[in-house]
Specification:
This protein is an alpha/beta fold. It has helices spanning 36-47, 52-69, 94-106, 138-147, 172-181, 196-206, 210-218, 234-243, 251-256, 264-269, 286-301, 315-331, and strands at 5-8, 10-15, 71-78, 109-116, 159-160, 162-164, 188-192, 224-228, 246-249, 273-276, 346-349. Helix 2 packs parallel to helix 3 (94-106). The two termini are 24 Å apart.
Length: 356
């Protein structure tokens, strides 16, 4: 017997667990304009201090908090590969194991996404000193993936996908090499078109906008998760929808970083699939993420109940179901529904004490 309403647990489609430790630290004005790029400097300073033990402790706590909020699985976009000075750990799996162990301790189902990161900007710009702990060459990255294949004892609760940090951090030749070697990857994630500066840099170096380049030169399909896609053009939105790829939206982080507002109404009209993530963990509530998503659309449209399909009577139920469906796909799991053959990942809403 339960006291409340049972609904499917929400997949968290995009997480950087270590960034929970900096929540609030960037909320003070620096000299000049504060932007995503100045926030990034605070993140780098934190990343330099994270040891495998620290990462395990931070991740375990944030995963527990996710479970309390209604997330029952998490896609961990993981790029803290090396020691702070860029030297490899004696155990190449040191930080990956920290994440795996934290998820096991908390009881959340992880999809681990080792992330390729090689350059600091388009055109092959070398990584800055503060980025060296993120960097793997393609051979080391593929070797890491080979060692992370789920063992039989892990197969029921852990999945492994691949991630590319961004087009500015992964040269085209490295992207193609890894994809060729990982042709059977279950899920592929990438940050894309988050900032206008990123879009203009891509146009200058690669000759077109980032999502258009990825779709035309690499090809995207239902395995792909495009994180943020904030500054997608209408043509790019249509291309994503046609491909079956999923956009991972993180409205509280995107607002906190001043990224901009994703054109959700146009994307939904095109039939696009979406998932939600807590990203830098300014908020850990899937209800808050979905509320921000709808409220941004209301402000842009100057109307109410913008993202609900015409045949649906409940905005909240519709958004929750669609986010669960998209999140299941990018997690490479059969989750997000109360159905035969799905894990019993059930969230109970206390209808007498709503939480917002």
């Amino acid at each position: 017997l339960i006291n409340g309403a049972a609904i499917p647990g929400m997949p968290n489609a995009h997480s950087h667990a270590f960034q929970r430790a900096m929540a609030g630290l960037a909320e003070r004005r620096t000299q000049g304009a504060d932007t995503f790029w100045s926030w990034r400097e605070v993140m780098y300073r934190l990343a330099e201090r994270i040891t495998p033990d620290c990462l395990n402790a931070i991740a375990a706590q944030v995963y527990v908090d996710m479970l309390k909020a209604g997330y029952t699985s998490v896609c961990e976009f993981h790029y803290l590969h090396n020691q702070p000075d860029g030297r490899a750990y004696e155990d190449p799996l040191a930080t990956c194991q920290s994440i795996i162990d934290a998820a096991g301790s908390a009881g959340i189902a992880p999809t681990l996404l080792p992330t390729l990161y090689q350059t600091s900007d388009f055109g092959g710009a070398p990584p800055a000193a503060v980025q060296k702990r993120f960097v793997l060459d393609s051979d080391r990255f593929l070797a890491l993936l080979a060692r992370l294949r789920p063992t039989p004892q892990h197969a029921n609760h852990m999945e492994v996908g691949i991630a590319f940090h961004s087009l500015r951090a992964v040269p085209p030749e490295a992207l193609r090499e890894v994809l060729a070697a990982q042709a059977r990857a279950k899920t592929i994630h990438i940050h894309i078109a988050e900032q206008e500066r990123e879009v203009s840099g891509c146009v200058a170096q690669l000759g077109c906008r980032p999502i258009a380049w990825l779709a035309d030169e690499i090809g995207i399909d239902a395995r792909w998760c495009l994180v943020h896609a904030t500054h997608a053009s209408s043509e790019e939105l249509d291309a994503i929808a046609r491909s079956g790829a999923v956009v991972a939206l993180c409205p509280t982080t995107e607002a906190n970083l001043g990224d901009g507002i994703f054109p959700s109404q146009s994307y939904f009209k095109a039939g696009g699939a979406f998932a939600i993530g807590s990203d830098s963990h300014i908020s850990l509530s899937p209800c808050v993420e979905l509320g921000w998503l709808e409220n941004q659309a209301r402000l842009a449209r100057r109307a109410r109940n913008v993202l609900v399909p015409g045949d649906s009577s409940s905005l909240g139920a519709s958004l929750w179901k669609r986010a669960c469906t998209g999140g299941a796909r990018v997690s490479a799991r059969r989750i997000g529904a109360l159905d035969t053959g799905c894990p019993a990942a059930i969230v109970v809403l206390d209808t007498n004490s709503p939480s917002f």
